[in-house]
Structures are given as C-alpha cells and as structure tokens.
Amino acid sequence: MVAIPQPTPPPPRGQRIVVERKAAAQIPETPVVFDCENVEVYYGAFRAVRGVTLEIHAHQITAFIGPSGCGKTTMLRSLNRMHDVIPGARVAGRVNYHGIDLYAPEVSATEVRRRIGMVFQKPNPFPKSIYDNIAFGPRVNGVRDKAQLDAIVEKSLRSAALWDEVKDRLKHSALGMSGGQQQRLCIARTIAVEPEVVLMDEPCSALDPIATARIEELMRELKSRFTIVIVTHNMQQAARVSDRTAFFTTELDSKNDRRTGTLVEYDVTSKIFAAPSDERTENYITGRFG
Amino acid sequence: MQLSELRGHKQYADRAFRGLAIAAAGLVLLVLGMIAIRMTLRAWPALGLEFFTSIRWSAPDGRFGALPFIWGTLYTAAIAVMLAVPISLGVALFITQVAPPWLKTPLVYLLDLLAVVPSVVFGLWGVLVLSQHFGLSRSFLTAGVILAVMIIPIITSLAREVIETTPASEKEAALALGATRWEMITASVLPHSKGGITGAVMLGLGRAMGETIAAALVIGSALGQITVNPLAPGNSMPAVIANEWGEADEPHKAALIALAVVLFIITIIVNLIATAIVQRSMKRGRGA
Amino acid sequence: MTGAPAFQESTATRRRNDLRARRSWRTVKNQLMLGLMIAALLLVAIPLAAVLWSVIVRGGSTAFKDFPSFFTETIPRISTRPGPGMGPAIVGTLLATTGATLIAVPVGILGAVYLHEYGGTSKFARLVRFMATVMTGVPSIVMGLFIYLIWTLSFGYSAFGGALALACLMLPVMIGSTEQMLRLVPPQLREAAYALGATKSRTVITVVLPAALPGIVSGSLLAIARAAGETAPLLFTVGAATAFNPHLFSEANTALSLQIFSNAVSAFAPAQDRAWGAALTLMMVTFIVTLAARFFTARFALKR
C-alpha cells in the first residue's frame, strides 16, 4: 500500500481557495481503474456530455466539479451503467474498466454495478430495517448464511462510523434516522457488497455542515479500501477531500443550440486550484462564473 | 480483470419475470378480444335486421325484436344521469371548495360507503321499500332513481379529482377581483374542469347502462312497447338478460346473448369516449 | 384643529362600512348556490341512510334471531317456509370471492408491474393501460355471459365459474390501483437497488413491491369488496344450490347476492325476510373488507 497524503485542512470560507502547493509528484501514481476515451452521453437526440477523456486512479478520490448542467453527474452515471435504466439514454465512446469496455455487448450491467457502487444525492434508504438495508446487497449477491450476514452488517456499519449509533436498533426502520445517518447508512450499504469503486453523486448536498464534515472524514478513511469518484458542486469540498479534480462546464452546441457538458481540465487537485491552465477553470474557481 | 468476470450469468429468472408481467398485461387485451369474438359468434343467428327494428319480443314464437330494450336502456340511463349529475357536481363542489378540512374526510367516507353498497341491495330496497311504501311503482323512473344513487359516487369522485387540479392561482385570481365563491367557481373552477367532468358523466352513463340487477328488480319487465312516459313500466337490455335467462332455450339464449353484445358495444363506445376525455383533461390539468 | 379628530373618525367608520358585506344579487346567488350544494349532500345522504336503516332493521331481525342459526343452516327449498338460513350462500360467496382474488390479484399486480416498471410509455403499454380503463366499464352481466360461454357450457355450474367472472371484473381495477401505487414509489429506491447489482426483477420483487404493499393491499381489498357484492356475473355461472357445497370446482353453488336477487321478487314474506338477512350479511362482509382497506390506506399515508 502506498502512503496516502494527508488531507488538506478546510480553507476558510469566502476566500479564494488556497491549496498547499503539492507538486504533482506528491500524488502517488496508482494503477488506472477507469480509462475513458471520448465519452459522449445522449438522452434521445440530446447530447448531454461531449468528448470526455480522462483516467481515474485506484485508491484516490477524484472529484468532478463544475456549474449545474455541465454533465458531471451524467458522466459519473456512465461509469457504472446507471444510464441503462433510463429509456432513451445512450453512451458513445469507450469507458474502459481495467481495460475492459464496460459497454461491450457481453458485459452485464448488474455485474458492473456489483463492482462499482453508487451513493446518491439524496439519502435513499429502502423502507426496511437498518439491518435489511445493509444486507440487501450481500443477499442479492447470494449470501444466505445468517452469521455471515451479521458479520457483514457489523463491519459495514463500523466502516461507515455508524455502528455505535445504531447497533441497538438494527431492526428499526431506516426511515427513522436523521438525514446524515441515512446517508452514512447508504454508504455502508454500498460498501457491504465490497465494491472496488464507490461513485458518489453530490452525497452531501442534502446535509448540514456537521453531517457533511463526517461524510468527508469517512471518505478519507475509505480511500485506502476503495477508489472514490465524487461529484460535487462545492469547490471547497473538492479541494478538501480530492486528490484529482476534473472541471466540467457547459458550452453551446452549435448544431442544435442546446447546452452540452464537456470536460475543460483534469489534473491534480492542488494544481487545479492553485494554477489552473485553462482560463475557464480560473474564472470558475475564483467565483467569476457559475 | 478478465472480461468473463463481467459477463454475468444468463438471467433466466429476470427474463421469466418480465415475460410473466407482459403476459399478465396482455391478458387484458385477450379477455376483451375474446369477449367480443366469442359472444358475437354465439349471438350471430339472432343479430338480424328484425333484432334492431322490431318491437315484438316473444320467445314462444321465436320473434326477438330488441328495440324496446335498447330504448329502455338508453332512457333509464339518461334519467339516471340527469338526476345524478347536478347532485354529484354539487357534492363535489361542496367537498372541494366549501367544506372545512375536518368535514372533508367524513364526506368522502360517506361516498365510499355509498359506493360499496351492493347493487342487489339497492334493488332489494327499491322493490320492497321504495315501490311498496313510497308509491313509486316499478317503472323507468324508479329504475332511473336507483341507478342515479348508484352512479353518484362514481361521478362525484371523478369530478372531485378533476376539480382539485384547478390551480390555486386561477382561483385566487378570481377571488382577488372581488368575486364571491360561486363566481369564483363559475369563472375558474368549472371552465378548468369542463372536460374532466364531461368524461366523468360519460363514465357514469356507461355504468348506468350496464348496471343489471337493480334495474332488473325495479324496472317493471314490460314487453313490446316504447314510451317516453317515465312512470310506465319498462325494460332494459341487462334486465331482460337477467330476468329471462333462467327459462331460456335455444333461439332465445342466442337472442339474449345478442342483447349482451349490443350492450357491450354501446358501453365500450361510451367508455372509449369517456376514457379519452378524462385522460386528456387529466394530462392538461397536470401540465398546467 | 378641533374638527380633525371627528373628521378622521368618520372616515374610519365609512371605511369599516365599506368592507362590510352588502346584500346584493351576487351575494344572494352565492348563498343560494351554497344552499343547493348542501341540498345535494342531503340527497346523497338520505337514500344511503334509508337503505342502511332498512337493511339493519329488517335484516337484523332475521339474521340475529336464534343466533347463529341464520349463518349456519341450509336454505329452505320452499320459499313460504319461514326460518333460517343462509349458510350455503355465505360459503358460496366466500368461495367465489376467494377464487377471484387468487386469480385477479397476482395477475393484476403483474400487469401493473409491466405497465409501470417495463412498459412505461411504449405503444403496447399505452394500449393495455387504455384498454384496462375501458374494461372497467364493461357491464358485469357481459362478463358473466362470457364466462358462461367459455367455461360453464363445458364444465357446468360451480363456484369457480363465478370466481372467473368476478376475476374478469377485478382484473382491470387491480391493474389501475396497483399502477397508481407503483407510481408513488420513489425512483431513487430503484436506483439504489440497481447500484447494488440487483437485477430488475429482484428490484421489483424485493424493493418496489414491498414499498407499495400497503397501498396494493388497500386497492385489492376495495376490489374484493366490490366483487363480493356482485350478482350479475354469478347468475349464469354459479347455479342455484340450497345445500352446502364446499367444493370450488364442482357442482352448482350459490351466493348471498344470488339469494337476495331470487328472494327479492318472491311474493312471500319468509323469503323476503331471508333476502333482508342475506343483505345484512353481505353488507357486513363488504363493510368489514372496506374498513380494512381504509386501515391500510391510513398506514400508507403515514409512511409517506
């Protein structure tokens, strides 16, 4: 295991985000998990994302930032084939996962999603007990043994720093928890199936600052076990937790006059926030746009 | 990582479930189609010109003219709708626009209660109470009254749904101009819900035409006459089928099934129109 | 400046008077229409109260005399003979309704699952949805004759024939109410299940349907209550037995609604009394089922 760099302390709010200058060399070169080549996502005839090419590295936190409508969530969902369930949605280009095209005809979407989990914007626990929420994934994957399930539930809840809060009410409905607890439950539920990658779609946007801080702390802890990709509209959050940052923006599609999302710049987080090479990135992070 | 790891199993269970669901949905079309085909085939010998033009219905002579029953079905249904529509609208408007919140739930319960009273119980009440003690003899009017009571909950609940889609802004616009509640209703609620209410009335009409047992008990089972006198005993298609099936023999049975086919076609047409109107107005209501 | 306060006061009074309601044709009309609405409400309440009164008073005196013999004895073959009972009709109603439930509820739920989870806005789904709505308007007597043609003609009278006819009536209602409940299940729950690697069928069975269950149960119970009170579909399919027949598939049976229908037109008081008793019994069955449906609806509302 390579050494993980210490997370940067949260910068004071309302100021220009200053990140300690870490040279790119300080980010360990871990293996590539996703290798996206010229990815485009269509909803029917509408092109939501255009020409995205980037690599996502193992055991790092990669953040997708950008103004709303820039396609960051759309891009994230293409990484575990969540577009399959939306009628009319289509992905072009290649999303290579360890060198395998995720959209090859013989690849099964359910197998992909077992390895690449997802945490959503709004906490979405099932209307079941806390225990059954966590056990859902393992059960889907064929775990029947009660003792084994118990162990998985405990381990997952501990990993999500939730065990001590809920261990006495595992059989209670998950809908009785607070929003922050629900989101940590959703994270526990996702890691219970031992995925390799955890995709997080604005996981803190529905939470208060304290709950947000706990989730961010949790992400840093989970980095050693999982590869994490997070979509956030909060630049401070990206600066605080991520190792690499991809900045997306919208541009007018000359063909149909509709806005389409595209990748502007992708680099080590410290570089993006300290010395972006593209003017649009500079404008966005200094608050002149979006 | 190997490609084979991501290949997954052939998901037979998944496909089987999907197939089952499609089959279940298709059953609706199958049953409707079979009703149309099997019944028409069986009734074919009876479906001649005489069936639609003659007023003479006499099983022993093998003469089956259904015109009086077709008339009776339309006439009783029309009476029922004319009685039920103003009442249903009044109740729907009262529940949605006037009633305080604490009164709404009990009123909706009341209508639900009315909706679950079995039609045969209404018929029993009509024949043993209404016609014996209140002097309403078995007639078109009595049947119309009973049918009206039965379709009121249907029309009311649909009208209520439609009326509730009136945007608050439209109602407030009228009130802000100093309109009284009734002026607000005529200015914004009724125009907005016109289509949906029409559809609800059509659905009520279809239900009134198809309602069998209550009509069979109180309509009077008259044969061979067409009259507009609402106090005269009459007959309707479903009532004839229910009352005569027990002692019917061969050509007679085919004629009764022919009545059912005609009834089926009329109610299907009424319902097609009603459903189309309701769906369109609902869509518009949501879109607004 | 002594006149100023008086001036102000009079303005205030005038303003107050301006805001006071004035009687005009407009306000009278408003009141009149309100009165008409209340009259309409009474016109609905009166027949309901009258029917309930007759059924409870006249049915109660028959059904609860020598309790519980009315519910356990066989039906007298001669209509002039007074006395109980309606036992076979209760059994017949329960058999036919249970049979119909076992057919229509699973098929209806599956059909709704297709419409909402698979079909969506596809042409086939739209056609089925439209036709299901149309099918709810097919007269029940037509359903009865249809089952007579495809089942009773070949296999004879039985409670099962009645069950088939009632199932045809219940099916579109089940599809409609279940699809409405599925629409209330948040799409985020489905996404969560997919993201854990669940297949579509697994998602529907273990997440979507349980989440919608209280609403589906409530819809089923309402459909069952309607079916239990139906007469016309049973007229040609069930037969007219007077003795107990606990068999679903064989031999003529009877039902409460059928007994009410045949006894209502009888000229003899004992038969009429039995009709009222059967009516009370039938209403109790449908009311209990409806109340149970209400209970589930209330629970579902709490959860959302």
Keywords:
heterotrimer, A: 290 residues, alpha/beta, 10-stranded mixed sheet, 10 strands, 31% helix, disordered N terminus, C: 304 residues, mainly alpha, 12 helices
Description:
The complex is a heterotrimer of chains A (290), B (288) and C (304). With 290 residues, chain A is of the alpha/beta class. Chain A is 31% helix and 25% strand. The termini of chain A are far apart. Residues 1-8, 10-15 and 21-25 of chain A have low confidence and may be disordered. Chain B has 288 residues and is mainly α. Chain B contains 12 helices and 2 strands. In chain B, strands 1-2 form a two-stranded antiparallel ribbon. Chain C has 304 residues and is mainly alpha-helical. Chain C has helices at residues 3-19, 25-63, 69-72, 87-119, 123-135, 140-155, 159-184, 187-195, 200-228, 232-235, 256-264, 269-303. In chain C, helix 5 (123-135) crosses helix 7 (159-184), helix 6 crosses helix 7 and helix 9 runs antiparallel to helix 12 (269-303). Chain C starts with a helix and ends with a helix.
Describe the structure in brief.
The complex is a heterotrimer of chains A (290), B (288) and C (304). With 288 residues, chain B is mainly α.
Basic shape of chain C: flat
Q: Which ranges of chain C are low-confidence, i.e. pLDDT below 50, for 5 or more consecutive residues?
A: none
Number of helices, where a helix is a run of at least 4 consecutive DSSP H or I residues of chain C: 12
What percentage of the residues of chain A does DSSP assign to strands (E)? 25-35%
Helix content estimate of chain A: 25-40%
CA radius of gyration of chain A: 19 Å
- Sheet with the most strands: spatial strand order of chain A: 5-4-1-2-10-9-3-8-7-6
Describe the sheet with the most strands of chain C. Answer: none
What is the helix/strand order of chain C?
Answer: HHHHHHHHHHHH
CA-CA gap between termini of chain C? 66 Å
Number of helices of chain A: 10
Rg on CA atoms of chain C, Å: 28 Å
**Beta content of chain C:** under 5%
Multimer state: heterotrimer
Overall shape of chain A: it is: globular
Q: What is the average of the pLDDT values of chain A?
A: 87
Helix content of chain C: over 70%
Chains forming the largest contact = B-C, 87 and 88 residues
pLDDT average of chain C, as an integer? 90
> Order of helices and strands of chain A, N to C?
EEEHEEHEHHHHEHEHEEHH
